[in-house]
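Can't attach files on this board, so I'm pasting raw text. These are the components:
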Amino acid sequence: MTEEPYRWVEAIANRREYIENQLAAGSPIAALSCADGVLFVTVSRHQQKLFEIYDRIAMGGIGHPGDIERLRMSAIEVASAEGFSRSANDVSLRRMAAYSLSPVLKNAFEQIYGPPFLARMLFAELGRNGEPDLLLRLDYDGSFHTNSGTAAPERFATISGKEHSSKMMTQFLSGKKYAHLTSAEALPLALDSWAVGHLTLARDEGEIPSQEEIAAHRQEQLRAGTLEAVLLDRRSPAHATFRTLKM
Amino acid sequence: METGPLRNAGAACAAMPDFTEVLRRHGALPEPTQIAAPPTALAQDPLLAGLRTQATTILAFKFCGGVLVAGDRRATAGNLVVYDRADKVLEIDRHSLMAIAGVPATAWEMARTLEHSFQFYRRSQLQELSMDGKVRALSKLLRENLGMAMQGVGVVVPLFAAYDLEEALPRLYFYDVMGANFEVADFAASGSGSPSVRAVLQYANAYGPRPLAKMNEEEAVLLALRALDTAAENDTATGGVDRHGRVYPLVKIVNPSGISTLPEALLVKAYQRDLQSLPKNALTLVEIE
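---
Top answer:
Structure tokens for the assembled complex are below.
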């Protein structure tokens, strides 16, 4: 069947549709680059969604737990081996995503007889010496987007089960100032953006929900799930900057 | 199909979260050297002794503020002083310290491997490695190094000090060259100056005003400095306190809140005060009538 180019394109399209359906219920994740570090926030139900990868790198993922686990392990392995054989300063999220993770995801996605990764991930790396933080979204097909490359890098990034939901979160978060916010001040904002994303998961169009609706949803969901918040701490005296925020 | 670093990565890591295996897979760690039973003639060559750098005296003991670990700063090769600012007390993670005596090249690499393995375990398994696991990890590294040690180039005899958060206890271990670990209740010492250090600590513990475990930080620091200075009097490979070169030993303390390195200014003050309080001729040569 794959000898015919059209069939291959069709198979890829089917596969994309299948994966998007599988990811559609994924609880959103928001990352904000604020004064004291990069804050990751989500509300999880059954399993941990935010993870430490290396000294200055963290990850959040939605999708199949088995696939997320494999990718997480690979990322830790690649970073640790590099950090050991060269130095911690040589570990770079950009290189890890571009040369290790992305090609493998793309390959698995396009080899239509093998299983693809059902995973969408959000990575962050603390900037060194006052450089801006790198936020990077990596998708199941290997495509990735970063916040850099523009004159003023965005100070937030989001992933969600559906594109519209993610768009709404982006709209909600854009236009706000994060540079001087502490993680404690940024947390309610990140949580609100999570609520926006979660509310709009079931809607394919429409505007950002009203402030009251967001607040009500947020409260209701926090009762049902657990708030998960981690920080890559810019002010940490230790090399490992990752810490879980206790509520 | 999957290629490169991701191949089987997840499965292999989950089943065997051992960092040294990961490094081997990435070609970043050599296979352990085979054990060659008798030391080769080459290793015994006195000329070669000059090429083998050794780091010397280290000590550790429990006091009321945790575990104190100290090391002199001298690295020697044969009868040469190679370096006078060697760090022999290394931080492995937030609550563990490793002090090294022996060949620095091997010891520092061991410390690096250990540090990375603990972190790798925490990150991949989402939990801290247990105290016993950490102690055992160092045993394994020593065991793998046995081949090198037998050939006479790479002997390392470390101390491992940590605060056990689970049991809320300070812990102290010493190792032999083959990797056996021994937990000690009060103090441990290693390296060429260790006989003197052991004697000083033994004496202070048994006959001093109070046992080591009851000492406060000031007393503990002073005792550590005196012990290393005594070792330096008896062993040329120990640096002790070099008052002229202003090189003071490295002293670190591990307790429930983590590891702290004593600032040099504090050591200088403690030592100067000690000198002044002693009888005038205590540390100088008395003229023979």
